[in-house]
Amino acid sequence: MTPSQFSCPVWRRPDRERIVVAPVRSREVVDLVIVGAGFQGLSTALAAARNGLVVRVVEARDIGEGASGLNGGQVIPGLKYDPEWLIARFGEEKGERLIDFASRTADAVFDLIEGEGLDVEYLRNGWIQAAHTHTAMDNAEERTTQWSARGADVTLLNASDIALMTGAHGYLGGWLDRRAGVINPLAFVCELARLAIAAGARIATNETVTDLRQESGAWTVLLSGGHSISARAVLVATNAYSGRLVPGLAQSIVPLHSFQIATAPLSEAQQEIILPHGQAVSDSRRILVYYRKSPDGRLVLGGRGRMSEPQGEEDWDHLRRAMLRIFPDLAGIPVERRWFGRVAVTPDHLPHVHEPEKGLLMVAGCQGRGVGLMTAMGPHLATYIETGDRAVLPLPVSAIHPIPLHSLRQIGVAAAIAWYRLLDSLEK
To answer: What are the start-end ranges of the E strands in 237-384?
Structure first.
């Protein structure tokens, strides 16, 4: 079996008309070129086109074949860090602004789905961060306290609460963030593309950007098909799929593979016990697993996989073992789907906004919150591209800092994942 046979997620594509793509046929002149048609690129394209900009999107694959269509569809607000840490890092004014933005990222997704009537299955019943140790439980209590003080709809869960809400084994408690939820990510990215096209953006798929050149105050975007585009601004929305287009960008992040499995549909009795109210769950282990139910009643479970592309079904065996640790009663249920995508992690676990040259913009690093984060960033990026006012960006613009010995860093990450997985297995 080849790796391409393991890119068949359980998610349904929308039942609307096909997305009408517009290949680049000659030299075009536009206001904005967006490289990458994922959540970040399409959300920005939609906002920019509605603001009156002439927008061209160039995607190297088909819509939904990158991380946006291959992820778990968990819509989680906030960032990896809690409010008080962000204020200590960024200061009172910038920290509060970032906290306010981060607290509303899930709203951006669900408001768009509901307001536009998108053909996207979704459920906004919250996200549970499950604690498997007393230290993790203390962290959950502190996180609940900090967000509760800011008016967020969050609740601390004890062992009985989390057992009833998840049907899972091995947790001491956790916390529930009711602002969160789940969506069909493939349907959402396809519907974002449809909205952007309806707003006037043009999207070319299966076309690779080979070079970016700044000439006479404008950017020339060269394409693999031999054509080119001239633009005032370029947004490189490639995140973990960044190559050599922007010097140092790919070396400033660590790309990791997120593997996922989906079981056969659960029985009615299993549905009543496992996630009966449809929340998403992430656990507190060093190498965490995350899980939810799909719209057709399957258990979908994901986590870190091997650094290289998978070669066979056995590369997902660690996820099945994790599933049986959490839900031992599922021993007899078959795994029917396996797939993987790529995610970007930054050294400080924060999203980074870069503008290495005027008119060349990018955001990288989601740390598991890409659905909400990148959807919410789009309108801010569009406004900044239009006005040039950095005050509209919720995150500061920073220089690109390549990770020293980046190629060796990936070997180290693989070793660290194996070590952390061993430590996790020893914890009860």
So the answer is: 254-263, 280-283, 289-293, 299-304, 335-345, 352-357, 360-364
Q: Assess if residue 86 is contained within a domain.
A: no
Calpha distance 38→16 (Å, rounded): 19
β-bridge pairing 360-364 and 299-304 = unpaired
What is the helix (H) or strand (E) element at residue 374, kind and residue range?
helix 370-387
Dihedral, CA of residue 281, residue 286, residue 261 and residue 36, to nearest 10 = 90
User: Does the residue 387 lie in any domain?
Assistant: yes
Domain count for the chain, please give it: 1
Please report, for residues 123, 305, 318, 332, the alpha-carbon distance to residue 294 in angstroms, rounded to integers and kept in the order given: 10, 21, 20, 19
Does 341 reside within a domain?
A: no
Are the beta carbons of 304 and 256 closer than 8 angstroms?
A: yes
- What strands, in cross-sheet order, belong to the sheet with 181-183? 74-75, 181-183, 122-123
Q: Which helix (H) or strand (E) holds 129?
A: strand 127-131
Dist. CA 50–CA 66, nearest whole Å: 25
Q: How far apart are CA 45 and CA 69, in angstroms?
A: 17
Query: What are the start-end ranges of the H helices in 201-316?
Result: 268-273
**Any idea what the CATH number is for the domain that residue 243 is in?**
3.50.50.60
**pLDDT, tens digit (0-9, with 9 covering 90-100), for 105-160:** 999 999 999 999 999 999 999 999 999 999 999 999 999 999 999 999 999 999 99
- Selection from 370, 386, 390 nearest residue 49 by Cα: 386
The phi and psi torsions of 214 (rounded to 5 degrees) equal: -95, 120
CA 388 to chain centre: 26
| Closest among 287, 288, 297, 289 to 262, alpha carbons compared | 297
Tens digits of residue pLDDT in 294-316: 999 999 999 988 777 888 999 99
The Cα 374–Cα 45 span in angstroms is 12
CB 234 within 8 A of CB 360: yes
Q: What is the DSSP letter of 7?
A: B
CA angle 363, 177, 145 (to 5 degrees): 100
φ, ψ (nearest 5 deg) of residue 349: 60, 30
